[in-house]
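Troubleshooting: if your tokenizer reports a length mismatch, compare against these two reference records.
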Amino acid sequence: MTAGSHRAAVCLALDGPDAVTTQRVPDEDLGPDSLRIAVRAAGVNFPDYLLTRGEYQLKLTPPFVPGMEVAGVVTECGQPSGGSATFPVGSAVIALTRTGGFAEEVVVGSEAVFPLPQPFSYREGATFLVAARTAYHALVDRAGLRSGEKVVVLGATGGVGLAAVQLAKSLGAQVVGVGSDPTKLAAVNTAGADHAVNHRDSDLVGTVRDLVGRVDVVFDPVGAFGAQAFRLLGWGGRYLVVGFASGTIPSFAANQILLKGASVLGVRAGEAARVDPTGFQRGMTRLLAFAAQGHLRPHISHEFRLEDAAAALATLSERRVTGRVVITTEQPPRAPEPSAPTQGPNSVEQH
């Protein structure tokens, strides 16, 4: 039985980010085929915010610790039962945690742990898995995206959207990224999109058709533009229902689906991994190869310390983020000891 404790950001009520506070929690016991990871950074995902409000598919009863993905260092290994991947103590890793990631340490089954891609910092590693895996399951497993096809990515300035842009380009597609902020859309261009479209400044359907004609795949984590975006599809097109970040759930006219020979496909990457673990591991092998080759890399616009996890969640919910938000577990610096004032106009310490 473990006897220690560590800091974690705990959701105490289903009242949103304001109900998240940092406190000490007991260390978790280490079971077989599991690893204890000293967390260096944790990615913040929109489902983490929804969990704190009780609005996600997974319903949790407080208190609980949000956090679906982390990067860190292996500090302890459970007894392997055979056939599971092993990581020696000291290995730099990334992991899918589902919950519990906003903490100084976490215990994770070895099947959900992967090596930190060589080019990545811990911050980048902590913001890679959920977005990249969602994009891969949508574009590859569900849509069967082929080289040369045309893809529209809605919500392209968000973490999942930017991952979808990068992955679609890596797979040889022509990509149109759609967003609403010209400053944020600069990141879409940097991610490799062939075209970046501000839907607030133009007619979405007309603009996209002028640029690329009809498209093969629409990747939609937003929900608000479903009826418009569906019109972009050509014959045999695939519409990927990835999420509803806008709070709007679109509906699609059955006659239009019939006339286009189109498919509307639901995307649940987490559930797919549990139903088909072999397919999940196969996809992860390919994603890690793309990351090692420099084709996939998270864009992080905001960074918070663990004690500011509530602010991190609020920032994400307020749509102020381009790409990803990350939480680090660095302790805040100690207050300096009082000292005699330094003379001169440049006596303020620079940080």
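Reference record two:
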Amino acid sequence: MTEHSLSLVRSGTRYSAAPIKVKSRPLDTLDPARWAKRLVAFQPRVETIGEMCALAQEHIAGLATEAVVRRVVEANPHSLWGYAHKSAFDPENPRAEGFTAILLLTEQGLRALAERTLDCSDPDPALLAKPGERPAGIYFWATFAPGTLAPGVTLLFDKFKDAPFDGVTVYTRVSTPDGRRFTEAVGFRQGPVIDGAEAPHLHYYERKPKPAATPLYDSYGQGRECKSLSVSVAREFSDLLRVTSIRGAVYIGEQQCPFEEEFDGNDLMAAHLIGYAGDEPVACIRVRFFADFAKMERLAVRKEYRNTRISFMVVKAAIELCRIKGYQRIYGHAQRRLLDFWSRFGAKPFEGGKSFVFSDFDYVEVLIEAEPHPNAIRLGTDPFVIIRPEGRWHVPGILERSSSRPATRPSIGYV
């Protein structure tokens, strides 16, 4: 059920039942910034589904009804993506010029697809993966991307590069000559074998699983070896007790800082990172966020662990946390005796910065100019990513699983 243009890859080969030899440019190797630089891919509003179906009715035979598409999308918002030219796209009133509809299939659903028992005109919800669940297969249900919208498919592949979709094989069923030529030109092959069943009616695109890339600020796991160093964001009350213990030992115990000066009223308004040696909390740092900069402060390392690299890990993790939250300017007050340490992270005293004294130590204002993070969280990021636990934006959260339940609004009508 696909309709493609040949603006991305062209072939003069005529359509036939036999495989078509075209020059392949696999989708995973195409840079969206180059091929789709004038396009945007977005999750459309449910109320615009009728408009999107109307776009393709004349081009795709057997297109599912608006009611069916709406039901699939409401069950899993990742099932529908719109394409539009940037020049015509209004974020306040997004309207699609083309689209790709997707069925995120469970193992049972993928077998049904291979055996031709999957009713694509009205798919059984039991065969579809729930939000946050890793699908067994991604089926391109319908794609309508005429003319210069065709490269928008590269944007879609880019959005599906992370968990829970990374490495999941993509399947499609070609129904037009142009769709077949385009599909094979971007790396799809005909005839997958699914759970022992041959499926010559399908094309498939194998994707390599993305190597696990746990961010440094979420590298802690219980039960690690006693000498293993890691970092975690503080998320629970017990984590704040760990932070308090470390800072109490270092600043109050060693540096004789008065209690009210160390615990200054900002701890509940900040993010804290904890460094671990095995399961033992041994270091911490605090980060506060302002309009256009973040401030790192209160770095503390227990003295018996200062000959390790935990201080470097904690600072690097804090910088990475700031970057993923969209900050590029990271400000701090560095003790003058520790300027060399902070310079290793790019911190420099800046022009117009002040030197000053508090809690019996002399400080210098410093600034780190960080590179923008490629996956920084901003307006337009998947809303389910934004509501994940702090520092766990790379892992599907519990609220994504809850979205599979209908909106019953149980508290309405009760006091």
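Descriptive notes for reference record two:
- Confidence is low (pLDDT under 50) at residues 1-22.
- Residues 2-205 form a domain with the Aminopeptidase fold (CATH 3.40.630.30).
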